[in-house]
Every structure is written in structure tokens, then in C-alpha cells.
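Anyone able to model this chain together with NAP?
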Amino acid sequence: MLRAISLADAYKYTAKPNPVVGALILKDEIIISEGAHERFGENHAEINAIEAANKQFGKSFESFADLILICTLEPCNHSGKTGPCTKAIIDSGIKRVIIGSEDPNPIVAGKGIDKLIENGINVEVGLCKNLVERQNKFFFFKHKNKRPYLTAKIASSADGKSHKKDGSSTWITCEESRQDVQRVRAKYDAILTGGNTVRDDNPRMNARVNFEVNQPKKILLSNKHDLKKTGNNFFKDTEVQVITETNLKKIISSFQDSEYCSILIEAGPKLVNAFLLNDLIDELIIYQSQDLLGLNGVDWFKKDNTIENLGFKLESSYKIKTDTKYIYKKC
Ligand SMILES: NC(=O)c1ccc[n+]([C@@H]2O[C@H](COP(=O)([O-])OP(=O)(O)OC[C@H]3O[C@@H](n4cnc5c(N)ncnc54)[C@H](OP(=O)(O)O)[C@@H]3O)[C@@H](O)[C@H]2O)c1
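re: yes, here you go
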């Protein structure tokens, strides 16, 4: 199972918003084939492992009866972007399947396991379950809480400011922190910002990384109808969902039926504080520089709105060149 988990891990930037899944097939305790869900919309891990075994041995499916399939997540029993994995497993003739965790997605949850058992397959569930859940933290969170995991990422001066009052643009943090932000973006299913940030900064907000990534979708909260697509960097790269609703709780609960399991919020103090005060943020990432913005700076937080008062606990902090990155989680 640990091998299957590590196979899955290699595709965490391309399988999203799907969970990462790894699978392998054993004969007499020796691995004869491996597979992973490599890209969103492509074959699931179990199918890739079965196809790899077929290619390798050129045998008919009937000869699979003495093989064991190990997969990190419950095989699906429905036709989505690909056919049901349970059918491929049953057709292969495999008679024993070991599963890391039941799939929390209500479309699958338990139905894949039931289908295998109904077809005379010996099924074991729960091997390394905690690791599989941790590996797919956003996916399990979404189905448990019926909304995506929300992280707010902010850059702050040493004196707690977000940007200059006079509107003149400046980088708050160092080049290395900004590179780190690119890798953080690559992990999320969507990036969300507000109208003022798009107006003031014209940001692109894609993940500019040197590895393959299924780019995060973009979400813009704005009800002024003045932001045009032409010449606006935010509208490049991928589709943008423009939301004119301003009730944040309503917006986030509407994502229950979306593909998003995780959203990274990159906005200014107005929107970030509105999310915090609505108790919607699960994680807060702060990149803090050593420089001061002084009286010309806009505060991130009002004095009594400290991060700790808002119910966050520091999980980790480390230096990135001249800056410090802090990761806070909701208690
Ligand atoms: N330091 C950093 O990490 C960082 C990051 C991003 C931005 N910034 C800076 O932040 C500045 C903009 O910040 P900001 O605080 O003025 O704006 P903001 O937080 O980026 O966006 C606020 C806008 O979001 C929209 N919105 C929709 N629903 C809302 C709600 N419930 N509550 C609040 N806003 C809602 C509105 O857009 P409409 O008015 O279009 O309807 C509102 O004007 C920029 O100058 C930028 O440079 C800094």
C-alpha cells in the first residue's frame, strides 16, 4: 500500500481536483504491474494497473484469478469522464482487492466496494487509511464539510501592512517568497480574488512553475460590472467565474456541487477580513518581510482582530531569504 501511495503522490499537481490514486497488482507477493491516476479526465489508477499487467503478460483477463489488486482509494462504480473501475476489475477476473480508504464522494461511497463483493470478490478496506486521507486532505475535507478547503494567503510588511494608501504599486516580499507562492498556487483547484485587487494590480494569478500542473481555475468576486476581459491579466490562462453575489457564506456553500476541493484566496484586506469574520478560512499563510510601509500603508488587521483572536494557531514558520513564512490553521 505504501508503494501505491507513493505512485499516487507523483500526480498531485495534475490529477486535481480529483484525488490522487495509486494501484498495483501482486502475484505471489511480487508486484507485476503499477498504475496511477495521472491526469484529471484520464484513466483511473486501477485501469492503468490492469492494462499494464495485460501488456506485460499478454494474458487474457481470465488468468487474473490468483492476482491481488491493491488500490489506495475505493474503485468507482459510475461512469464519469472514464468508465467504472469496478467493471474493469470484475471483467479482469481478479478475486482479491485491498483498498486503503472508502471514497467519501457520495457518488462512490461504499457503492464500489458493494459491487465488488456482490461479484464474489474478496475485499479488505482500511489499510493505511490515515495516510490515504492525509494525501488527499482537500478531497476528504470537501466531502466531510460540504464545501472546499479555504486558505487565505497574504503578503505583509513588518508593520502589518498590505499595500500603499496612495495606490502606487510595490512588492512587499522578496523574489524567493514570490516563487514559493507559485508552488502554493499549483496545489489549489481555484484562486479567488476581489474586484479592487484586479483593478489596482492587474494580476495574472496563475501557477508559474517548472513542472506540469492542471492550472487552478479563477474566481472573481465583483458586482460593479466594470472589469473587462480585454487587457486584463486575470482573464488569461483559464476560465474565470465572475460572482456578483456578496454574501460569502452563500457563495462558499454554492461550491458544494462544484469540482473545487480547495480554494486559495489572494485578495486585499477588505475581502480577506470579510472571509475571516465570516469564519470561513481554514488556513492562513502569511509571508512577512522585514521592511516597513509606515503611515503610507493600509493595515491588514484592525487592532483587536489579531490572528489568535480569530481562532488561529501557528502551525509552522520558517525563513525564506529575508522574509518569514507563517502557516496558521483554524483551531
Ligand atoms: N499584500 C497582499 O498580499 C495583497 C494581496 C492582494 C491585494 N493586495 C492589495 O489590496 C488592494 C485591494 O484591496 P481591497 O481591500 O481594497 O480589496 P479586495 O479585498 O481585493 O477586494 C474587495 C472587493 O471584493 C469584492 N467583494 C465582493 N464581495 C465582497 C464582500 N463580501 N466583502 C468585501 N469585498 C467583496 C468587491 O468588488 P467590487 O467593488 O468590484 O464589487 C470589493 O470591492 C490592492 O491595492 C492590492 O495591491 C495586497
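The chain has a mean pLDDT of 93.
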